[in-house]
Amino acid sequence: MTKKFNQYIGKAGHLAVMSEFLMRGWNVAIPEVDVGDDIFVVEDEKGLFRRVQVKTATATNRKGTFSAKFQLSIKQLSRTSDVMVHYVFITRHNEMWTKPIIIRQDFLLDHFENNKVGSQYEGNLTLYFSYTDDKVDCSGQDFTKYIGGFGDFQKIEH
Amino acid sequence: MSAIKIRVNKQLDGFTFAILPSVREFVKTLFPGAHPANTLFISYDTASGFDMLQNGLEKQIYPMLLGVDRERLRKEVTEIEFINTETGKSEKVNL
After folding, report:
1. Nearest CB to B85: which of A78, A110, A114?
2. Measured between beta carbons, which residues in chain B are less than 8 angstroms from residue A74?
3. Residue A152 forms part of a structural domain
4. Which residue on chain A is closest to B84 by alpha carbon?
């Protein structure tokens, strides 16, 4: 896969995730300058605001299972502000997107600091997700509970 | 857990104090009925340069964030560690 195609898959992932938020009744926006957050997600009526970081990967097939590798900035993960970042991980597998794995920043940081998930290199954290049947594992931690975890994005009726 | 860790993020217009989910669970176990918050934001004028620890603000913060009053906290917890999320530096406060 070329570096150029990575940009295509990254953008496709963003748009797929944005589409999900829109279907749940949340408004979305992409910051004009691409630093930090990928998407701003807003509940229009009350002005509830959430920050979203989308991480995309292509699946590596294994025997009866597949895995995906994601990279994120440890600095951004560690900087807990009043509006936590929601990390959304999606994987392209068999010409389809997997269900999004949504982990709020404080939960992911807790896994990193206390469960030692992922590996660190030059300020980045690399996470390996292993998908088996309907389960997802990361460094021995069960991430299945985060699949489709839209709990902080309850459906809004318009 | 030797100390309760509170993460402090100094922003342009104030401070955000946060505890991780494992700390919230720890507090709930230690103090049944406690309702720890995820974050607490204290707003100031832009770029106030306010120094939280020199002004004793932390004494007001941790009971609110942890959802436990100071007297109850003192019985079970000896110190609280405030971690600057920008620098990684920490300061311990005895209860």
Report:
1. A78
2. none
3. no
4. A79
Contacts of B22 in chain A (CB under 8 A): 110, 114
Tokens standing for residue A6: 């990575």
d(CA A154, CA A16) in angstroms, rounded, equals 18
pLDDT-based confidence at residue A37 (cuts at 50, 70, 90): confident
Q: What is the pLDDT of residue A42?
A: 96
How many whole angstroms separate alpha carbon A7 and alpha carbon A12?
A: 8
Tally the residues of chain A.
158
In this prediction, residue B2 carries a pLDDT of: 55
**Token pair for B11:** 């922003």
pTM: 0.92
Q: Give A59's Cβ-side CA count (13 Å radius).
A: 21
> How big is the A-B interface in CB pairs under 8 Å?
33
- pLDDT band at residue B45, thresholds of 50, 70 and 90? confident
Please report the pLDDT score of residue B21 as a whole number. 97
Q: What is the pLDDT of residues A56-66, one digit of tens each?
A: 999 999 988 99
Q: Count the neighbouring beta carbons within 10 Å of the beta carbon of residue A13.
A: 22
Q: Identify the CA nearest to A50 among candidates A149, A148, A154, A153.
A: A153
Instruction: Give the Cα separation of B36 and B27 in Å (integer).
Output: 7
- Given a contact cutoff of 8 angstroms between Cβ atoms, the answer to whether A93 and A100 are in contact is no
**In which domain, by residue range, is A26 found?**
3-146
CATH of the domain at A141: 3.40.1350.10
Residue A104 lies in a domain: yes
